[in-house]
């Protein structure tokens, strides 16, 4: 018989933390907490296998599930001394979903299940508190009605708001039992009206309804979207947790809360969280009442910290905090309830955290001896470092502060205000910076939050949906800015007399919670000591070198600041577009008199030499790979009439002649046209000028610094050995003449990009003429797939959405196709020339998954944009650790 149900609590713990694939994260951790002696209300977990079986069998449960659930329910009844559905002493349970990883977007929780018009009276009698009993009942009807029966949440809220207005009360706790009874009646009516069904009064029907809703929610559109965004396979399924209720809403010696064992925003080693007296779990997250801080140290004037209000439960919670951190060796996010001064734990999981917190917690825990340095490296998601490198507001910048909310997710962001997730996504797709502003967010908004630069909410605390999701995504977030009034009908928000319409700009500071009018200037981030420590640890572990793609002095400096070990790609064409150069470039292309062309080339030589001198100086002896001109010449040609006239005047030609020359250079398919080494072969004077500039600059900086600069000259878009051989010979001739003129000697390398499938296939022959290869995986992806780099954006998302491709191949290397060519090129190249230096300089050089692949293939280095350098350093260390583990297993 398959075991579908695992009990926990009251001495029978059938699960363990390691069983999260079967029991989901929540179920596995409840069992683990119970088994280490923590106070967990008894319950059971229905496994993720049931979810899979449910979908495989046309949404039917396995035959023996019901009997196993009945037996597990009886165990809870025995443990609690109560009976499910009993009219005198009813057992109430919560039903919660729990996948392997936590997943907003699914049905989350139904509390107080088991109540009906009769059992509510029993609860009133057994608790001696009718107000509590009816409050619990109305909560249950509302939750069940919305999450299980599908009635929109706000129908219930509207009734309650209206009711409170009539009574003239603000706080739910001021509502009496009789009044709650009226609300329950109205809720039943709402359900009847919107579903045509009665609210189920049979507790068994309620239980199976809720279980069915959890399994059903695994395939709802929101959950599907979330899974797609986070690469979670549908086959994992969710578990269902059924657990005896404990009550935080039974009076002033009761409470409920959410806390983190360390600060999830900064990583500081302080106990952190929020709680509410006389409340149930959803009140904290819903932002209906303002939660209070946990500790006295974190409390402000007028607040009521748990440490003061419930000192015994707080002390117990502190003990649990230490115990759980030691046990899990990670920062925990804990949900708890205090019932009549007794603490119960309802959940623990590794807490979501900002990148800064992930970094600090990893370093601190390694120093505390809780984890190893290697663990610390594994635990910081490489891409999350991006967040640390984000800008902050310039302290000197002028600003008008509109309001302040909670500093829910750090960083600074400016953008146009939008009020719906849909508008947010649409504008972001058009390249606009947008700030999503909502009263509060819900899982329906996740796609909009993803597209936004920042999120601002009027309601909700540090553990509200907006705060948790934004932190996880690395979006700036200011939550619970109470002075904002949003009118969704007119798409205008007002803040203390300022009226801000959709499209107006605001700036958020997620580190302080401040909201500013308009766009406020930002400054680059300062790298913390923890950051440098982690980078140092990563560097001591990684095998792959990390260089940067940079051609401006600014980029080169940034690259060094972030720890680049050289430049893997300086795209010289970017230097041709400067306002002082483009005129000469155009003359060089269009002139047909030799003397005129040479004059333009000489002018460019001076500029290029200066360019290379400054890069060589900044890189101070580190390797620099300079790529000779790559794009087709017509990219540099004038378009506007005034520009054409300017070139015509400089060359003494008519406007028509210049126009005709431009037209002659146009190509139907320039990406596959007259570019790369093809250009160098037909216009050798351009490459000769560039080679001369490189060598002269290297000589100059070698003389200045005494450091022997060894320039690496890279030839783009080579398809055949013959192409490279001819271009190389010409370059060597030019180098020889520079050295002869100067009476100098210089070490240099000449290599090629491997960015065409033919080059990868012919890499063995090509390596005969190359000192190094650098894989241009942008063009290699384009040409292997036959997918235009510039046009694929319009249909690639369709491929990813429909599972035709698991990821965008321009972002993450296609291991089976493009990757296979990289592997082949490497192997064939090295077979010819064992010391052949191998790098990659396409965008994939900054993508952690691709970096893991390049490490596996045995490349020497990756080269990526300067801001990705730290990401690449960490990803390279993580790849090295993963290989170590694989080798240890093998
Ligand atoms: C490439 O093709 O991967 C590359 C680095 O060159 P570019 O992007 O300049 O074509
Ligand atoms: Mg290329």
From TrEMBL:
Mg(2+) binds at residues 755, 779. The active site is at residues 465, 841. Keywords: ATP-binding, Kinase, Magnesium, Metal-binding, Nucleotide-binding, Pyruvate, Transferase. The lineage of its organism: Bacteria, Pseudomonadati, Pseudomonadota, Alphaproteobacteria, Acetobacterales. Its EC number is 2.7.9.1. Residues 432-513 form the PEP-utilising enzyme mobile domain. One of its GO terms (molecular function) is kinase activity. PANTHER family: PHOSPHOENOLPYRUVATE DIKINASE-RELATED, PYRUVATE, PHOSPHATE DIKINASE 1, CHLOROPLASTIC. Its cofactor is Mg(2+). Residues 21-58, 65-294, 310-368 form the Pyruvate phosphate dikinase AMP/ATP-binding domain. It catalyses: pyruvate + phosphate + ATP = phosphoenolpyruvate + AMP + diphosphate + H(+). This is Pyruvate, phosphate dikinase. Belongs to the PEP-utilizing enzyme family. InterPro entries: ATP_grasp_subdomain_1, PEP-util_enz_mobile_dom, PEP_util_AS, PEP_util_C, PEP_util_CS, Phosphohistidine_dom_sf, PPDK_AMP/ATP-bd, Pyruvate_phosphate_dikinase. Substrate binds at residues 571, 627, 755, 776-779. Catalyzes the reversible phosphorylation of pyruvate and phosphate. Residues 529-879 form the PEP-utilising enzyme C-terminal domain.
């Amino acid at each position: 018989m398959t075991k579908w149900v695992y009990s926990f609590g009251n001495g029978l713990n059938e699960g363990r933390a390691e069983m999260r694939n079967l029991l989901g994260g929540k179920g596995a951790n409840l069992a683990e907490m119970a088994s280490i002696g923590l106070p967990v209300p008894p319950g059971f977990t229905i496994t993720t296998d049931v979810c899979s079986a449910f979908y495989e069998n046309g949404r039917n449960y396995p035959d023996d599930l019901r009997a196993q659930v009945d037996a597990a329910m009886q165990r809870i009844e025995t443990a609690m001394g109560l009976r499910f559905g009993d009219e005198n002493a009813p057992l109430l349970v919560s039903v919660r979903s729990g996948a392997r990883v936590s997943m907003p977007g699914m049905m989350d929780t139904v509390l107080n299940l088991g109540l009906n018009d009769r059992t509510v009276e029993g609860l009133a009698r057994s608790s001696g508190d009718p107000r509590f009993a009816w409050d619990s009942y109305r909560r249950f009807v509302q939750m069940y009605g919305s999450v299980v029966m599908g009635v929109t949440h706000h129908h219930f809220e509207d009734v309650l708001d209206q009711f409170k207005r009539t009574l003239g009360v603000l706080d739910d706790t001021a509502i009496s039992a009789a009044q709650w009874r009226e609300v329950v009646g109205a809720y039943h009516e709402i359900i009847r009206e919107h579903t045509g069904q009665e609210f189920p009064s049979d507790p068994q029907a309620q239980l199976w309804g809720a279980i069915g809703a959890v399994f059903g929610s695994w395939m709802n559109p929101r959950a599907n979207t979330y899974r797609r965004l986070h690469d979670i396979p549908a086959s994992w399924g969710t578990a269902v947790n059924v657990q005896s209720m404990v009550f935080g809403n039974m009076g002033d010696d009761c409470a409920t809360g959410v806390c983190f064992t360390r600060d999830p925003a900064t990583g500081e080693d302080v106990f952190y969280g929020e709680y509410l007296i006389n409340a149930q779990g959803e009140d904290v997250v819903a932002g209906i009442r303002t939660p209070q801080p946990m500790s006295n140290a974190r409390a402000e004037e007028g607040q009521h910290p748990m440490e003061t209000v419930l000192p015994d439960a707080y002390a117990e919670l502190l003990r649990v905090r230490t115990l759980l951190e030691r046990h899990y060796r990670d920062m925990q996010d804990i949900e708890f309830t205090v019932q009549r001064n007794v603490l119960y734990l309802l959940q623990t999981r590794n807490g979501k955290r900002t990148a800064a917190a992930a970094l600090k917690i990893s370093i601190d825990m390694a120093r505390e001896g809780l984890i190893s340095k290697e663990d610390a490296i594994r635990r910081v998601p490489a891409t999350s470092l991006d967040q640390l490198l984000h800008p902050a507001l310039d302290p000197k910048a002028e600003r008008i502060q509109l309001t302040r909310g909670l500093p829910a997710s750090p960083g600074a962001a400016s953008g146009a205000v939008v009020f719906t997730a849909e508008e947010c996504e649409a504008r972001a797709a058009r390249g606009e910076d947008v700030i999503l502003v909502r009263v509060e967010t819900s899982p329906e908004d996740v796609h909009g939050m993803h597209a936004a630069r920042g999120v601002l909410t009027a309601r909700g605390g540090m553990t509200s949906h907006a705060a948790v999701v934004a932190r996880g995504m690395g979006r700036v977030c200011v939550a619970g800015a109470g002075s904002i009034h949003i009118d969704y009908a007119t798409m205008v928000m007002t803040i203390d007399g300022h009226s801000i319409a959709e499209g107006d700009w605001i700036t958020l500071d997620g580190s302080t919670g401040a909201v500013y009018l308009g766009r406020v200037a930002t400054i680059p981030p300062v790298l913390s000591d923890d950051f440098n420590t982690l980078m140092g640890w990563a560097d001591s572990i990684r095998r792959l070198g990390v260089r940067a793609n940079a051609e401006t002095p600014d980029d080169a400096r940034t690259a060094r600041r972030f720890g680049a070990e050289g430049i893997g790609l300086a795209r010289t064409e970017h230097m041709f577009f400067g306002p002082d150069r483009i005129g000469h470039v155009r003359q060089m292309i269009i002139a047909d008199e030799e003397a005129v062309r040479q004059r333009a080339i000489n002018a460019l030589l001076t500029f290029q030499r200066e360019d290379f001198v400054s890069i060589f100086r900044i890189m101070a002896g580190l390797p620099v790979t300079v790529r000779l001109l790559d794009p087709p010449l017509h990219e540099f040609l004038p378009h506007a009439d005034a520009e054409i006239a300017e070139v015509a005047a400089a060359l003494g030609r008519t406007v028509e002649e210049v126009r005709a020359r431009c037209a002659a250079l146009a190509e139907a398919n320039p990406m596959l046209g007259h570019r790369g080494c093809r250009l160098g072969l037909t216009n050798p004077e351009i490459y000769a000028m560039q080679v001369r500039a490189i060598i002269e600059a290297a000589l100059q900086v070698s003389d200045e610094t005494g450091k022997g600069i060894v320039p690496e000259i890279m030839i783009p878009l080579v398809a055949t050995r013959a192409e490279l051989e001819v271009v190389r010979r010409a370059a060597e001739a030019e180098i020889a003449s520079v050295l002869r003129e100067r009476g100098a000697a210089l070490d240099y390398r000449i290599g090629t990009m491997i960015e065409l499938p033919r080059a990868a296939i012919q890499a063995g022959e090509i390596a005969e003429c190359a000192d190094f290869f650098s894989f241009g995986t942008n063009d290699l992806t384009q040409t292997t797939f036959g997918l235009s780099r510039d046009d694929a954006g319009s249909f690639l998302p369709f491929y990813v959405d429909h599972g035709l491709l698991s990821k965008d191949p321009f972002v993450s290397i296609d291991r089976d196709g493009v990757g296979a060519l990289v592997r082949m090129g490497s192997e064939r190249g090295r077979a010819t020339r064992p010391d052949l230096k191998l790098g990659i300089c396409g965008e994939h050089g900054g993508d952690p998954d691709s970096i893991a692949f390049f490490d596996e293939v045995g490349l020497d280095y990756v080269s990526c944009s300067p801001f990705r350098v730290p990401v690449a350093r960490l990803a390279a260390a993580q790849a090295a650790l993963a290989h170590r583990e694989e080798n240890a297993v093998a």
